[in-house]
Automatic annotation (TrEMBL):
Domain GST C-terminal residue range list: 102-248
Full protein name: Glutathione S-transferase
GO cellular component, one term: cytoplasm
Annotated region described as Disordered, given as residue ranges: 329-352
Boundaries of every GST N-terminal domain copy: 3-81
Gene3D superfamilies: 1.20.1050.10, Glutaredoxin
Species per Swiss-Prot/TrEMBL record: Candidatus Viadribacter manganicus
SUPFAM superfamilies on file: GST C-terminal domain-like, Thioredoxin-like
A Pfam family matched in the record: GST_N_3
Amino acid sequence: MTAPFRLYGAELSPYSVKVRAYLGYKGVDFEWLPRTNARQEEFQRYAKLPLIPVLVDADDNALQDSTPIIEKLETDFAENSIVPEEASLAFLSALIEDYADEWVNKAMFHYRWSYPEDQESAAKRITDMIFDGAEKPEGIEEQVRIRMIGRLYHVGSSPETAPLIEGSFARLLGLLNTLLAKRPFLFGGRPSLADFGLAGQLAQLNSDPTPGAILRAQAPNVVRWLERMEKPKAEGPFASFAEVSADFAELLRDEIAGAYLIWMDANARAVANDASGVSVDIGGTNFVQKPQRYAAKAFNELKRKRGLVDDAALAALLAEAGIEAILSAAQQDDGDAADDEVDDEGDGDGEE
Ligand SMILES: N[C@@H](CCC(=O)N[C@@H](CS)C(=O)NCC(=O)O)C(=O)O
């Protein structure tokens, strides 16, 4: 792909903000284009699916989905790589990024659309962006609010699952706050793919009233890291796997094996069986939601990446956390079912 780029996105879209921070870090020339009503036709010309972000290059090639966008740019712009050279650390980074995209996103969507103060704040900011100074139609904020509340089921948020989702968020914050007291970024002196994925989601949570107050009260190191992640700069090299792996043991066991991968596995099975819902026990909570094809595809991609790394220390860390068991027992690739599917997409934030 060739610079300069145009990035269609939104301030309230975690995946858009993730790609924007990444482009800034790589120092490539790009223009940030909020998806306003006025730009809708232009946006639709490039978007295969009605989702942001969309990245368009100087030759009018368009790319969608934040992870493949970043992976493609990494091959074209190798300097300041966000992928640690050690394959074991690179796998941890990819795993944590996917956890952010597919699981932390549930907390983001849950807080934004479950509590009145958060709903009102997000509905106002989204419609401010869409109408971009033009007069808003009567009742439009309320329409957005109602529409997004109706989509809580798509991510599995309900009064029954709220304690699980909120507990998961609190646990993540505690672990990250400890980790980021030691280093500027997750894996050392420079940001990795995992930093960009997590910061994309957590910056949204920080901007919403209810989870933002929790972040500021309980995780000051995370708040400072989020500020760094808006325009990240390399401050030193990546650490080695041996230096940092123990710091991730709890996150891998309690969050990644204990919640996210249980859900990813159940979701992949539901998608393969064409089931109408996913229902799975996560730590004593019955977690129910609409199957998501994109997450099933991401799960296959994760298994593929795991299969590429032959490293005894990584295998030991993942086995100890209970991750190897889930990844190896998980069912076979069901192909590229997610391509061209839109029915389960678009629950990343609340854009109209
Ligand atoms: N897997 C995609 C997810 C993109 C996504 O869900 N985008 C949301 C905003 S964050 C969206 O465009 N939703 C459409 C809508 O709300 O109209 C990625 O990584 O980029």
